[in-house]
Amino acid sequence: MEKLILSWLDIWLYVILAIGIIDGVLLAVNWKKYNPIMRLSIIGGITLVAHVWEEWVLPGGFGYIYNDGCLNYPMNRLSDMTTNLMGVLTISVIGFYWAYRTFKGKSINQTFVTRTGICVFLISVLEGFMHIKGGINYLDTYGFYNPGLATTIFMFLPIVVFFFISFRKNKPTKKDWLIGAIATMVVFLVMIILPEAIFKDPNSPFGYPNAGWYQQFLE
């Protein structure tokens, strides 16, 4: 099983990259038929793919700084992959569903769209807060940049701004905000807290191969 997991960890980034490309194609095809909240929700999923690539590979090293200098505890590649794969797949399944309904000429529940958008909006805000706070915390040690910050500033934060503009026009109800917030907390619990709790192991064989961006500070 360990060898199988390690093999998957070697290829999963390319799998989500393919998923992100498909999401982008479907979004482009249906752009004029989707409302702004639908577009931004799908863009949020595509942004997550780019964000993960920055954290893991270009330049990589987020796991190192998240673990405060450790490569496999408390977060490791298995828990990190599980978190991000669930996030990408969730938005993609929703996007495929919207594309299918649109292709068939069927209506799409706009209440669900709004609440999905609120969830993506809040997660984008949390991403922005986490990476900017991380940059401030390690400013004197490693500088402001941390892996994931670029996609946060240039992709997630613009999504937040455009969501804010859309919400001002569409005016979600208090119930929409409540359910969207609850959904966000469920996502946080199921996709972030639980994977780390389940897979954390000081002796995990699924540690990150190197410190990525931070390797330059260790040499």
Tag the structure with descriptive keywords.
219 residues, mainly alpha, 9 helices, 76% helix
Outline the structure in words:
With 219 residues, the protein is an all-alpha fold. The chain is built from nine helices and no strands. It has helices at 2-30, 36-56, 62-66, 77-103, 110-137, 139-142, 149-170, 174-199, 215-218. The protein starts with a helix and ends with a helix. The model has no long low-confidence stretch (mean pLDDT 96).
What's a quick, concise take on this entry?
The protein is mainly α. Helices cover 76% and strands 0% of the residues.
List the helices and strands and how they pair.
Elements: H1 2-30, H2 36-56, H3 62-66, H4 77-103, H5 110-137, H6 139-142, H7 149-170, H8 174-199, H9 215-218
- Span between termini: 34 Å
What count of helical segments does DSSP give? 9
Q: C-alpha Rg, in Å? A: 18 Å
Rough shape?
Answer: globular
Helix content: over 70%
Largest sheet: none
Low-confidence stretches: none
The counted number of beta strands is 0
* Mean pLDDT over the residues: 96
Order of helices and strands: HHHHHHHHH
Task: Give the helix/strand class.
Answer: mainly alpha
Strand fraction: under 5%
